[in-house]
Amino acid sequence: MPRDTGDTLEVSIWRGGQDGAYQSYSVPSRDSQTVLDVVTYVQRYIDPTLTYRFACRVGMCGSCAMTVNGRPRWTCRTHVSKVSKGGNLKIAPLSNLPVIKDLAADMRPFFEKWQEAKGVFEPTKTRHDPVEAIRPNEPARVAADEGIECINCGVCYAGCDTVRWNADYLGPAALNRAWTLMNDRRDSGQSQRLAAISTDGGCHACHSHQSCQEFCPQSLNPTGSIAQLKRLATKAYLRGEIGS
């Protein structure tokens, strides 16, 4: 167990549902302590009714994402020493999503937007056909290369101002997923997908604030993917393939 430093952290944690409130806790400060360590300490030693999510603890799954001092983060990879302000932490569930209880946000709207953006691969072949090889150096594969690293943690969605202002906006992760599929020549749903991301809540609703790029724990750039979708949608409109 990491060594106690002898200091104490004053932690405010959101408790309850959408209309809940912050509750304060005193937690021992330890070397190399993460925000997830703090939340786990509260749940194990102070209040076992605290609700939160985590799984891998090593930055692979994204399920531990929360709002820490006003910024969405993966709590398993966020060290307290880098984010605490005078020994204080304020921890809440992800923004722009309904609250189930305490630090657990309801991810259904996030994944429903993913579905609305037609973020599901539509195969052109069956399992009985030969596997179509995609070379790593193909231009379309290179264009989608970064975007496929998204693990749908919801951090970009929680940090997006456009999502906050426009309930119909599909969001950075859903549009990023759509962009990767638009570059997959094995996919048969590209015309329907292009129509889906060209609606009022689609790619053109993005204000290009680049909050998603700033907050992404994977250092991805959904704004860049969305900009490419805007170009595709504009060209399709000029060709008469989609409506206004």
Structural domain count: 2
What's the architecture of the largest domain in CATH terms?
A: Orthogonal Bundle
Radius of gyration, Cα only, in angstroms?
21 Å
Unreliable sequence segments: none
| CATH fold assignment of the largest domain | Fumarate Reductase Iron-sulfur Protein, Chain B, domain 2
The overall strand count is 7
Q: Biggest sheet: strands, sense, closure?
A: 5 strands, mixed
Topology:
Layout (H helix, E strand, L loop, with lengths): L3 E12 L5 E10 L4 H12 L18 E4 L2 E4 L5 H4 L4 E5 L6 E3 L2 E2 L2 H9 L22 H6 L10 H4 L2 H5 L6 H11 L7 H7 L14 H5 L6 H17 L6
Parallel strand pairs: 1-5
Antiparallel strand pairs: 1-2, 3-4, 3-5, 6-7
Helix pairs in contact: 3-7, 7-10
Question: What can you see in these coordinates?
Answer:
The protein has 244 residues and is of the alpha+beta class. The chain has two domains: 4-105, Beta-grasp domain (Ubiquitin-like (UB roll), Roll); 108-238, Alpha-helical ferredoxin (Fumarate Reductase Iron-sulfur Protein, Chain B, domain 2). It has helices at 35-46, 80-83, 108-116, 139-144, 155-158, 161-165, 172-182, 190-196, 211-215, 222-238, and strands at residues 4-15, 21-30, 65-68, 71-74, 88-92, 99-101, 104-105. The strands form two sheets. It has a five-stranded mixed beta sheet. Strands 6-7 form a two-stranded antiparallel ribbon. It is elongated, with a radius of gyration of 21 Å. The N and C termini lie far apart (60 Å). The model has no long low-confidence stretch (mean pLDDT 94).
